[in-house]
Each structure stands twice: as C-alpha cells, then as structure tokens.
Amino acid sequence: MTKAARLLTLLRRTLLICVLFSYGLSNAMGKSPNQPAATPPAAAIASAHPAATKAGEQLLAAGGNAFDAAIAVAAALAVVEPYSSGLGGGGFWLLHLGTEERSIFVDARERAPLAARRDMYLDHDGELVPELALNGPLAAGIPGVPAALDHLAAHYARLPLSHSLAPAIALAREGFPIDAHYRRLARWRLEVLRASPAAAEQFLLAGEVPPEGHVLRQPELARTLERIAARGRDGFYSGELAEQLVAGVRAAGGIWTTEDLSDYRIIERAPIVFDFAGWTITSAPPPSAGGVGLAQMLGMLAELHLEDQDRVASVHRIVETMRRAYRDRAAFLGDPDQVEIPLARLMHPYYLAGLARDIHPTRATPSLPPSLPADLPSGLPSHVPASEGQDTTHFSILDDEGNRVAATLSINYPFGAGFVPPGTGVLLNDEMDDFAAQPGTANVYGLVGGEANAIAPGKRMLSSMSPTFAESDQGVAILGTPGGSRIITMVLNALLALSKGGTPADWVDAPRFHHQYLPDVIQHEPDAFTAEETAALAAMGHRLEPIDPKMFGNMQAVYWDRAGQRVLAASDPRGQGAASVVTSSLHLQMPDNSQQN
Ligand code: DON
User: Fold this and answer.
1) What molecular function terms (GO) are annotated for this protein (predicted)?
2) CATH number of residue 504's parent domain
3) pLDDT band at residue 447, thresholds of 50, 70 and 90?
4) Which of 282, 392, 408, 441 is catalytic?
5) Is residue 373 part of a domain?
6) Which DSSP helix (H) or strand (E) runs through 581?
7) Which pLDDT belongs to residue 144?
8) In the structure, which protein residues have their CB atom closer than 6 angstroms to any atom of ligand 1?
9) Domain count of the fold of the chain
C-alpha cells in the first residue's frame, strides 16, 4: 500500500468513527440523527434598546442564563427607556424552563392602592376627569417590577442581583446619550414632567427637553438599583426607600401607604395554552386580556378557513374576530382574583364556533352590544392626546439550554405619571388609567371596560400586554410588543404570519391593522391595504382610519428554527432596538435589526 493510499484509508476510518460516534451520541440522548436537537445552537436577545440588549449579552457572557439576562435587560431598559418601563411600573414575564419543559407566567402587574375607590377619578357631577388617572401620583398603581426582578433572581436565575443589575447601575450612574425618540416623548409630556420637581431634575435640563446626544445621568436611580441589588425586594418595598416613596406620593396628593408597598406580591399563574394551525400557543392569562383574546380570535379563525379567501375576505374575517374578542374583553375581563371570569366558556370551541358562524361573509357587524349602553362614546376624550405605540417595552430572550423569556413591561403612558417621589429616582406609572374608571367610558386607548374592570382596593387593572410563545416541531417563537390596546392584534398578526412561515424579520415587519370593537373602526398602517382593498372593505360597511406606523408598537421576536438548526432574532424596524444572536464563541450583530445564526 502506498503512503497516499494508507493516508486515505486512515481518513476513511476516522470519518466512519466520527459518524458512528455522533450516531451513538444521538441515540444515547434518545433521538435519531434526523430528530431536531433538544437545545438551541445559540442564544438570542431582541430588545427595544441597544444598551439593554448589550446588558443581556454581558450576563450571558458571564455565565448567566436567560433569566439573568432578562433581569439585566429589564433593569437597563428602566434606565435608557424611562418613557416606557421602569422600577415604578409593572409587567408580565412569560418564562419557559428548558430542562423541565415548563412555562410559567409571572404577574408583576401594578395593583390599586388599598385606599383606591371606584369613583376616585370622577368629579362632583359623576363625570370622569381623565387627567387624574394619567398625570401625577394619584394615577400610580403599586409597582411590581422590583418584586419581579427579585423573584426571578431568587428562583430561576444563576447569578445574584449584584451581578445582573450591574450594567443598569453603570448606565444610570455614567449616563447614556438621549436620542430623538426620547426628545419627542419628553416634549410631549413636558408640562407634566415640569410639574414634578424631581422628575424635571432627572429628565429635563433647566426645565427644557435636553438636546440630542446629551448624556443623561440618574444618580438617585443608580442608588435605588444598588439598594435592590443589596437587599432584594426589601430594598424597595420596605425601609427608607419605601418611606420616601410613600412620603413623596402623599405630599403631592397621592394615596399610597407603606402597607401598600409591604403587601405587594408577584403572582405566578398558569399561562393560557391552546393550539392553532399545528402550533401550541402559550400566552398571558388575566389580568391580561391577551391570551384569552388570542385564543378567541384564532379559535374563530380556525372555523373560517382563511386559506380559501382572498386578501379582502381574509381581512374582513380577521377584523370581525377582533371585534368579537374585544367585546368580550370589555364585558368579562378583569383581575381574576377579584372577579369571576367565565374563562372556560369564553375559550370553548363551541362558543367560538358560534361566534364565527355569526360573522357575515360580506357585511361588517356594527358594534352595538346588548350588554353595554348603546350611546358609548367612541374613542378618546377629545382633550386627551393619543399616545404613540412605543411607550411600553418588550424583550424576548432564548438561551442555549432552551430557557426562554418573553417580557412586556410598562409604566403605561409616555413617562408614566410624570412624577418622581423626591430622593428615589423612581418614575411612577399611570397604570390606573387601565381600569374602567367609569364603566362604559373610554380610557386613553379608547378602550371601554365594564364592571369586571372597575376600580377596587388592591385590584390589578386589566392589561393588553401579551408576551407569547409559539411552538411546534418546526421551531419555537418568542414574541411580544408594546402598543396599548393594539398589542393583542399585533401579536395576532404576527402569529398569522408565523403560521405561514417566514422569519422573525417578516413577523415584526408585517403591515398592521386593528379593530377593538369600540371605536367601530379599522385602524391600519397606511401601506397595509391598497386603494382597491380599502374601497372593498368600505363597501362591506367598515370604517377605515390610516394611522402613523409609530402608533403601533415595536415588536421584538426570537426564533429557534429547530428544523433548520439555527436561531434568528429581529427588532422591529419601527423602533430603535437591537437583536443579537450569541454563540459561545461567536457574536453576530447586524445593522438591519435582524439576526441569525
Ligand atoms: O397594560 C396595558 O395594556 C397598557 N398599560 C400598555 C400600554 C402601552 O402599551 C403603551 N404603548 N403604547
């Protein structure tokens, strides 16, 4: 045998051993070589701000898991997107534990103070005063985010809060350059921010919106984060900081007590889980309207065979399912610990088939519910401006053990209540506006609520935030978005796009349309429909209203493509976020907001 032939034989044998070894290894792990891998080939993060995505990457690089990264991302967003979320707000965290194949919903929603009353935002004539539920400390619910950070660290993360909060503490102390988006939202809330000296000091420069590029430092927020890093939830809900929060709120007309803070608890709830088009969808249960709404809309759509319809007929059917789901939202949904919600009935296939049958194939159904007064105001009170869609935040994370986080966090309106209790650095939410402050009257998102969402002491206000997973043999999607009342229909649009294939970049980019029962109008991005489609929908009896794409939120999506053995991530081009896919040896970040590996 020549030397070359010997070398070839050796190479063949080595290859054979490699193949046999990998075959044996896959069998030892309980799967054939063709079965999808049990863990993803990479980790990924998509968030609404590059500095937050970077904070999450730092935690993954330091040996943290998806939950460590989630704490770091949430805390960083609290610093760099003060108009969207923060320690003074709340939110929902949908978790999936890779090794246990188990999903958990962490409800860190704000709750009404114990002194709250159902008529607290009405004047002597019983008329709603919307500003009271939007501006200043009376508008603020008891925050849930600090308790959630502590809970994640104690139960699911690997590293202590001193590690996971470190990037946010540095960002708060050293500062970050503010961008045009910050300036636009600060300009819009300027008067409210000026009314709170501590908020003006923290977010303005000599009472004005700072110029672009100005480095915004928040030393008091850095100190509060350090307290939480050192003492966990007690650093926020008891002791000196809690007293400062309560004193500041009460001095400016609010009703918080120290008992409100010490009593606050996150609640772990079972997510809403259902099947659609071969995918298992896992989403937010009440007090979010998201999971129920998605189950209802997709349950109706399963009866309506969109695959056989043209674009106009499809949009008509999707809109009619939105209308019916938002009607049920208004009539039945609220805090599950305080109101009886007929969940099983609302999501029962027979009920949904009945709702679907009621949809006329070519005529819009007018929104005239028997259960609510016929003279419902349609839409926003004229003196309250509509908010943009990017003033709440969402991030999606996957780690290489298959752990996942979809988290949507909020302080509600841009810059929340615009109020900072002196000495705390904590900007308070105005989530109380998510209650039906006067059942039957629209809130700031034009949403009309019923008795189920009336204000009561200690009650959680109904939300639209819908962190969501979709899973099948093909892959696992992790997604969510801000966007006020449009959140649920945006997630619906994304799930419909996902069920047809494509990548996260396609789902976050898909043109959007929305109907919420009242006002009785299809809101849509200007390029969502052609002129012919608009005319055809109008001929069916639909009212259409094109709105600025910024009114829809900035979606963040991660996808583990099991079949293709790759991980992809995308941050909505409507926002300024960043998506990144991280392997242990390689880190990819591309300028167009979308990532793959
Ligand atoms: O919980 C909710 O449904 C609202 N507070 C979310 C607000 C929101 O998404 C604002 N962004 N446009």
Assistant:
1) leukotriene C4 gamma-glutamyl transferase activity
2) 3.60.20.40
3) confident
4) 392
5) yes
6) strand 578-582
7) 99
8) 387, 389, 391-392, 410, 412, 431, 434, 463-465, 482-484, 487, 553
9) 1
